[in-house]
From TrEMBL:
Catalyses which reaction(s): pyruvate + ATP + H2O = phosphoenolpyruvate + AMP + phosphate + 2 H(+)
Record pathway: Carbohydrate biosynthesis; gluconeogenesis
Cited SUPFAM superfamilies: Glutathione synthetase ATP-binding domain-like (SSF56059)
Swiss-Prot/TrEMBL keywords: ATP-binding, Kinase, Magnesium, Metal-binding, Nucleotide-binding, Signal, Transferase
Signal peptide: 1-28
Protein name stated in the entry: Phosphoenolpyruvate synthase
Cofactor(s) in the UniProt record: Mg(2+)
Source organism superkingdom: Bacteria
Pfam families from the UniProt entry: PPDK_N
Length: 982
């Protein structure tokens, strides 16, 4: 085989949203989409594709004509095509590498560590596009003789791996990526048969649509019987097939035959024997091959295959040479291929068999790098509750289901985290790139694991009386409600990136991943849940917007309903209803009367506001009683926390409401009125328009146009010199240094936040780690102006009946360069009890607030459950020089350590007891707390009541569709599945 070989806005709040959007938009501006589309179209038709001519590339760097070989060291010279000038320019300017030829490529540059292995991943993506798009940019140049020399590519691949695999950190940090890359980078003559099978079936279906059903079967539920299915299809349609299609059918059948061929144990044995005899894993592999029989029942073969995959992963660093490690990784891929075929043959007869299949496929997920080893250690006990027992309760089954469903989601998220950035970039100019991630997921154990988990979900739904009713789609048990509510509106299904998609308040959206700055919508469903305490999740929970998670296959199945009017509901127990308008009951239709909608709105209290206070305040001089009077709740509550936890809270300055209001009395340029008069006239004119029966959309657009002008004017308004002088003095007294020498956060803090029925989380601007005096003073005006952005206005307009009375204060605090940050909710959300803690953390600043896939845990008095691991590879740090640095991480270690968890439990207990004692509050609900860790020290950044939508939770309709569940009910583990499914 081988030649040699939230919770809400953390100190970093909207910050995370703001910075990541800045990074993404800057990157998008750098890449000339239309230019690249034109170049790709040209390459497809050009006889030489992205190349210009063939040359000799000598060892000393000299490039010679194809007919003029290198005079010396001929054996070290390589001959292949040279890139066109425009291909080189695209690589140099945009870091996009088309038609990459490996021979002669610098191996360190190809690994591209500084850019998160972007170049290697692009190579894989290029290969995928070539396989699904008739050669893609190589459509003609694949016939350009001599352009690529396969033997040179093979030799380069072997040398590449032997150079980069000896370092342990590369193996442990990038195990999944390295295994995947071996399927694409030439090094041993093997090919990616699973991908080839899907690509060839897609090409046939695109050319001959009647083959589509067969193609869907091959993609979604492959099995060895597919070979006969394809043969029979060709026989039936042979007279209508072109000669080219007949050739493609022959190629597909050969690929399928190769893929489903029995395991050649002798071939694998010869590969194992190439591993150094001193390597202990070699003996384990030989023992495995001696006992393995391809004729064994799949329920015996799959566990053995899964276990040996884990043996290879856990022991691979024991091998010391790059050649041994390359051999072991190739063996791991070969064994996974066998497992994928065997698991398709495993059709359990009873519940125990199904649970065992799920457990062993989960082990295989760890063995193949889809989940990390520490993640498996955290949850493996949850998948053993049936062992040795005669029966199992619905509660235990439900825990098993949630854990196994989590493993499926984490596996898909690993693929997305690894390749998501580069796929998103390519999709802007080549839409077919979007299918790459799905193809990789389908090439893994996650495909059959997901199917098995879905089958278990359907079984539990039957016994627990929990059933979704979602159109007519399959695998409905994959859908789970996140927060309750109901909605009616047009369904919009978005498969690609949502960042540039216009969002309508009255529509229901299904996203792969919601945009970071999501505007209010009627309802949402997402494949990438993110985490339970992100801004989007909190706002949805707060406003009673129904929100659910679904699988990628569910999203595709619902695509046919895109543009249809639908009814959508989620109960507190998590079951989901989605039906067409025609299927709505009278009760459901009655839910959407105008009268009920108006009752949802509340007023921002302004009767106690103190606009006469126009001095910059020290945060130590305010406490919770000043919230909504002098400043917003961020500053007031942080001042309270400073009194209660002085060692865990930074110093701070507050710019109160009165300073903003005083500045609004200036004349607004070109309007003949003050800023304040302009603002109030905007809302008065809007009311007049409504009284004249003007369409609400026109009223809203009128307000948005006016507020946009106001926002721009505020950003340019002059600041009062007295205020600036107070600010400069405040820096010296509170922070011990002059303004411009201390990096700080500017946090918007309005009086519309933390109302009893409205949280306002993440709606307005926070600027962070800004240093210069100019940036700070300009930033103050930007923060003042942020409540008048479209997104902020639409969210509060949806919920407040006096949105004109929103006053911003600003909290200024010095930056803390936290290693990781996040949110605590002092209750279980969706799981657990009111005595538990829901915790979500991400690395760096801005943790867990902008929809990041954060490390999420349920912490109880006795233990902590991993609800989800982190799957965000990019994070931000806050250097003392101001600004941010973008960093890359991997997932082989957990974020929170035992000391962190102990500190979190202790601080949460103190908050529960001290807040009521020291503030006299009558509030008895949960708190949501922002915090971070630097050098294992806990820093508190914010605390606020955890606001949930009581209307959604108490709705009579939602209660009527919420099932009664007897969690103590027992199911016989040997009960036949046929009986369960009747």
């Amino acid at each position: 085989m081988k030649s040699n070989h939230y919770v809400q806005k953390t100190l970093i709040t909207t910050i995370g949203v703001f910075l990541f959007s800045v990074i993404n938009s800057a990157q998008a501006q750098e890449i000339p989409t239309s230019y690249l589309k034109e170049k790709i179209a040209f390459f497809k038709t050009n006889a030489r594709g992205p190349y210009k001519s063939i040359h000799w590339f000598c060892k000393d760097g000299e490039v010679r004509d194809a007919r003029d070989p290198c005079p010396e060291n001929k054996d070290d010279a390589v001959q292949h095509a040279d890139y066109r000038d425009d291909t080189k320019e695209i690589a140099k300017k945009y870091k996009l590498y088309f038609g990459e030829i490996l021979a002669g490529t610098n191996r360190t540059a190809f690994w591209d560590e500084d850019n998160h292995q972007s170049r290697l991943k692009q190579y894989q993506l290029n290969k995928y596009l070539e396989s699904v798009d008739d050669g893609w940019i190589q459509r003609q140049s694949q016939f350009y003789r001599g352009a690529i020399q396969s033997e040179d590519e093979q030799a380069w691949g072997v040398a590449f791996y032997e150079k980069f695999l000896p370092r342990d950190s590369r193996i442990t940090n990038h195990y999944y990526l390295l295994r995947q890359s071996l399927r694409d980078i030439p090094h041993d003559g093997d090919s990616n048969l699973a991908q080839a099978m899907r690509s060839e079936s897609k090409i046939i279906a695109d050319a001959y649509p009647k083959f589509m059903d067969a193609r869907i079967k091959i993609h979604g539920n492959p099995s060895v019987e597919d070979i006969e299915m394809v043969k029979n299809f060709q026989l039936k349609h042979n007279d209508k097939l072109s000669p080219k299609l007949k050739e493609e059918f022959a190629s597909l059948q050969q690929t399928m035959a190769d893929f489903y061929a029995p395991l050649n144990v002798s071939t694998l044995r010869s590969q194992v024997e190439q591993v150094s005899k001193t390597n202990e894993t070699r003996a384990r592999l030989i023992q495995f091959l001696e006992s393995y029989k391809d004729t064994d029942a799949p329920e015996n073969a799959v566990p053995a295959l899964a276990d040996i995959l884990c043996v290879i992963r856990t022991s691979i660093t024991d091998a010391t040479t790059g050649n041994d490690r390359l051999l072991l990784l190739d063996l791991s891929n070969a064994i996974e291929d066998v497992l994928l075929k065997k698991t398709q043959e495993w059709n359990p007869d009873d519940l125990t068999g199904l649970l065992e299949k799920i457990r062993h496929l989960s082990i295989a997920a760890a063995g193949t790098g889809l989940i990390e080893l520490w993640e498996w250690d955290k949850v493996k006990n949850d998948l053993e509750v049936h062992l040795g027992n005669k029966d199992i309760t619905i509660e235990q089954l439900n825990q098993f289901l949630q854990t196994s469903r989590g493993i499926v989601e984490w596996s898909a998220a690993m693929t997305k985290a690894t390749y998501g950035d580069i796929v998103d970039t390519y999709t802007t100019f080549e839409p077919k790139a979007y299918g790459f991630i799905d193809d990789r997921v389908r090439s893994s154990v996650a495909l059959d694991l997901g199917e098995s988990v879905s089958e278990l979900g359907a079984l539990i739904s039957k016994y627990a009386n929990i059933s979704n009713s979602i159109m007519d789609i399959d695998s409905q048990s994959s859908v789970r409600g996140l927060n309750p509510g109901y909605a009616y509106g047009e369904l919009v299904v978005i498969e690609e990136s949502p960042e540039n998609v216009p969002i309508d308040t009255d529509k229901i959206y299904i996203f792969q991943k919601p945009p970071s700055d999501l505007k209010p919508v009627a309802g949402i469903m997402t494949v990438s849940e993110g985490n339970l305490v992100s801004h989007v999740q909190l706002l949805a929970r707060n406003l009673g917007i129904p929100n659910a998670a679904l699988s990628g296959n569910n999203l595709k199945a619902l695509k046919k309903y895109d543009g249809k009017k639908v009814f959508y509901a989620v109960t507190e127990k998590g079951n989901v209803i989605l039906k067409t308008e025609a299927d709505m009951s009278e009760e459901e239709t009655a839910l959407f009367s105008k009268k009920e909608r108006n009752q949802e709105k509340i007023a921002v209290p302004v009767e106690d506001i103190r606009l006469d206070v126009t001095n910059v305040l020290n945060m130590r001089d305010v406490d919770a009683s000043d919230s909504g009077k002098l400043c917003g709740p961020k500053a007031a509550n942080l001042g309270q926390l400073k009194k209660m936890f002085p060692e865990n809270v930074v110093e701070g300055l507050i710019i109160p409401f009165g300073i903003f209001r005083k500045h609004m009395d200036q004349q607004m340029p070109g309007e003949g009125v003050t800023f304040w008069q302009y603002l109030n006239k905007t809302f008065k004119d809007a009311d007049i328009m409504r009284s004249n029966n003007t369409n609400e959309n026109e009223v809203e657009q009128f307000q948005l146009n006016r507020l946009s002008k106001l926002k721009s004017a505020i950003e340019q308004m002059p600041l009062d010199p007295v205020f600036v002088s107070q600010l400069q003095e405040g820096f010296k007294k509170s922070f011990g240094n002059s303004i411009g020498n201390v990096p700080v956060f500017l946090r918007s803090d309005t009086n519309m936040e933390d109302l009893k029925e409205f949280t306002g989380a993440g709606l307005n601007l926070t600027l962070f780690n800004i240093l210069s005096e100019k940036n700070i003073t300009e930033g103050i005006k930007k923060v003042w102006a942020s409540p008048y952005t479209e997104r902020s206005f639409k969210w509060r307009q949806k919920y407040l009946n006096n949105p004109e009375n929103v006053f911003p204060s600003i909290l200024i605090i010095p930056s803390v360069d936290v290693e990781y940050s996040g949110v605590i909710i002092t209750k279980g959300i969706n799981r657990g009890t009111d005595d538990d803690l829901t915790v979500a953390f991400s690395r760096g600043a801005g943790g867990a607030v902008d929809g990041q896939i954060a490390e999420t845990r349920l912490i109880t008095s006795k233990t902590n459950y991993l609800l989800a691991p982190a799957r965000e590879e990019s994070y931000l740090r806050l250097p003392s020089t101001g600004g941010t640095t973008k960093n890359i991480t991997t997932f082989q270690t957990e974020i929170l350590n035992e000391k962190n968890i102990s500190d979190i439990k202790n601080i949460a207990q103190e908050i529960r007891t001290k807040i009521p004692q020291e503030t006299g509050t009558e509030y008895k609900g949960a708190w949501d707390v922002e915090l971070g860790f630097a050098n294992d020290k806990l820093w508190l950044f914010q605390i606020r009541p955890f606001v949930e939508n009581k209307k959604a939770k108490s709705s009579d309709y939602l209660k009527s569709i919420t099932p009664e569940i007897d969690y103590t009910k027992k199911v016989w583990v040997k009960l036949p599945l046929e009986t369960n499914n009747n």
